[in-house]
Amino acid sequence: MTTHLDALKRHSVIVADTGDIDAIARWKPQDATTNPSLLLAAAQDPRYRPVVDAALARAGGDRQAVIDRLFVGFGCEILRHVAGRVSTEVDARLSFDSEATVAKAEHLIALYGEAGVGPERVLIKVASTWEGIRAAERLEKKGIHCNLTLLFSFAQAVACAEAGVTLISPFVGRIYDWHKQARKVDDIALEDDPGVASVVRIYRYFKKFDYPTQVMGASFRKAGQITALAGCDLLTIAPDLLEQLRSAEGDLPRRLSPEDAKRESLTRIALDEKAFRWMHNEDAMAVEKLSDGIRRFDADARKLEAFAATLLQGQRAA
Prior knowledge:
Layout: H1 4-11, E1 13-17, H2 21-27, E2 31-33, H3 36-43, H4 49-59, H5 63-79, E3 86-89, H6 98-114, E4 122-127, H7 130-141, E5 146-151, H8 154-163, E6 167-170, H9 172-183, H10 194-208, E7 214-217, H11 223-227, E8 234-237, H12 239-247, H13 258-262, H14 273-281, H15 284-317
Parallel strand pairs: 1-2, 1-8, 2-3, 3-4, 4-5, 5-6, 6-7, 7-8
């Protein structure tokens, strides 16, 4: 019997949204993505102590070096279990600094290179600020591929496509959360779900105008949001939702296709910095969720930084 997960795999590339290497090995997705909170949970798991110890051994007593080595170490472990790519995130504190973002991305790619992993197997995750998009544009020209995250507005999506980035990650669940709170309701029906609608709009626009940038729906709250986007280029899914999809039997129709998108009547948009900032500013949800997301990612990174400091203290004591 076909499961919903089997059916989805026929329409979209499935990406595991976890730092749990055992879960990735079990689910065997095409790609995997990580962030500081997922990495912190994995680094504290006794099963992955060898990865942590290796990072410590190579960091030379420097806290930031420990964090970079942890990201790359776990990335390399993940790549042993996926055929495709792993996404590795740039520090959220660099979200408004193009130069520093480029430098950090190049450093991470160099560390992967030392471990024998080529840039074609890594996506550098960058926040979808104007500065982040400009950094990604430069990185793509250097052969370093990027996953633009914390994407909530159509302006962000269009700017990313114009910059030629490899992949964008619209956050379905966080858009849904904002509108649910704004409407003061417990749920929003799938046919009216603004998070789902955002991805549909972006996908159709990209395919209509032949942008090569891939769309990866992310940050899901329920399985129905995922199945409503069957056909999206990629879908990154947490293990609990993967389990729900595997447990549900039956086929799924393809909801998104390039052919249908080509038939849409759409107008192409040109965005310079001023137009981008104004268009993004008009979307109150996107403004709030982008700034909130950067703060949250930064808070998670600081927890990881504190964990690295503790590791270094233990190393010195030993």
